[in-house]
Each structure stands twice: as structure tokens, then as C-alpha cells.
Amino acid sequence: MSLKKTNVSFRITHSDTKKIKRISNRLGIKESEFFRFMVRSTLNQLMLLQDSEVKGVRLLPSVLDIARDLVLMLDFDPDRFDQLLNSGLQLGQRGVDYKDLELLVLAMTNSPCAVFTLSELSEQQVDQNNLTEHLKSYFYKKYLGVSTSDDGLHLTKGLPEDIDRVKQDERTTRLTEIDKEFQEGPCYV
After folding, report:
1. How far apart are CA 167 and CA 86, in angstroms?
2. Which residues, including other chains, have CB under 8 Å from residue 173's CB and lie 6 or more apart?
3. Euclidean distance between CA atoms 151 and 139, whole angstroms
4. Global confidence as pTM
5. CA nearest neighbour of 162 among 66, 57, 80
6. Is the dihedral of CA 60, 187, 138, 98 positive or negative?
7. Beta carbons within 10 angstroms of residue 86's beta carbon
8. Per-residue pLDDT reduced to its tens digit, 61-114
9. Does residue 132 contact residue 107 with C-beta atoms inside 8 Å?
10. Which of 1, 85, 114, 140 is the most exposed place for a label (fewest CB within 10 A)?
């Protein structure tokens, strides 16, 4: 890892500048250290996006973790999610259905339509207050063969072909909990 630093210049709002100063002061660090922290944190969260070979359902857990920010801050719509997840899929790689990407965008904007649609698709009552968790549960079950519950993740069917690579590549998602379940106790199938 190189310790050499590069100067970067960009514009932020006055409001954001004040927030950064307050947080930096509270942490007892320089503003530049806080900027480096924010960049590193974001880069860690987006690690899989650095690998252009990771596509489709293999990228889905990372995208779900940042979907709200992508929609609200970068104006992602279903087409942009489709491009990010499904562009360049190779034979044997599983993509994410466009209708589910539309649902993802609706849910990230807290649309009441998303609650209704997700309730129909998942065949269970969806609460507006937990819409994001219900959506993640729906995606995990449909695409990764994993169901979520209060006590963790559980396999619901045979693993998709790419799940081994998902677990290896994706260090920042809940899929690592599957490994813990295998090591610590029974797996519910």
C-alpha cells in the first residue's frame, strides 16, 4: 500500500463543510484526515465495483447496501441499475430482472406502490417502516437462495452457481453470516 498522497480538489456545499468541521473537531482530527476516512470507508463499501468481472447477482448484495444513496444522491433509475448489474453478463451468469430493479428504485424512494408490489411478490404483508429490510429479504431469497430472519440468514434452496464466488468476493455483506451459521450450528433448509 502506497503512503504517497495526492491532492484532490472538489466542491461541496457550505452546509457539508460545516458538518465536516464539527465532526472533525468532535473526533479530534484534522478535516483532511476526516476526508481520507470518508473516502476509504466508501471505497471499502464499493470494493466489488472495482472488479469489472463481478456482475449480476454476485454484485447484488453490495448494490442493495448502497441502493438508497445511489437513487437519492446519484439519481439512479432502473436503467442505470440494469447497466451496473446486468451489462456484459456472460453465459451462465445470472442477472437481475428489470421489474425487480424498478421495484428497487420505488422502494428506495419510499413509494407506497413499492409496499403494495412487494407485498404481492413476497406473498406477505410488508410494513412501510421496514420496507428496505423486506426488499432485501425478497432479493436475497429470490436471487441468492437465502432467507432473512431475526436470528440471521438461512439457506432456502440449493445455492446458485456463483454463491461461492459471492462469499469470497463480498466481504462487506451479510452473506458472511452464512459461513458463521455453517460453523456454529445447524443450517435451516
Report:
1. 19
2. 61, 62, 65
3. 18
4. 0.70
5. 57
6. positive
7. 19
8. 999 999 999 999 999 999 999 999 999 998 888 999 999 999 999 999 988 899
9. yes
10. 1
Contact 140, 147 (CB under 8 A): yes
Which three-class secondary structure state does DSSP give residue 91? Answer: coil
* Of 126, 58, 65, the residue nearest 95 (C-alpha): 58
Please give the Cα distance from 107 to 127 (Å, whole number): 12
pLDDT at 149: 55
Q: Is 172 helix (H, G, I), strand (E, B) or coil?
A: coil
Tell me how far apart the alpha carbons of residues 82 and 60 are, in angstroms, rounded to a whole number.
Answer: 11
In this predicted structure, which of 35-44, 98-107, 174-183 has the lowest mean pLDDT? 174-183
| Residues 94-106 pLDDT 10s | 999 999 999 999 9
Q: Say how far residue 7 (Cα) sits from the centre of its chain.
A: 29
Helix/strand/coil (H/E/C) assignment for every residue in 15-76: HHHHHHHHHHHHHCCCHHHHHHHHHHHHHHHCHHHHCCCCCHHHCHHHHHHHHHHHHHHHCC
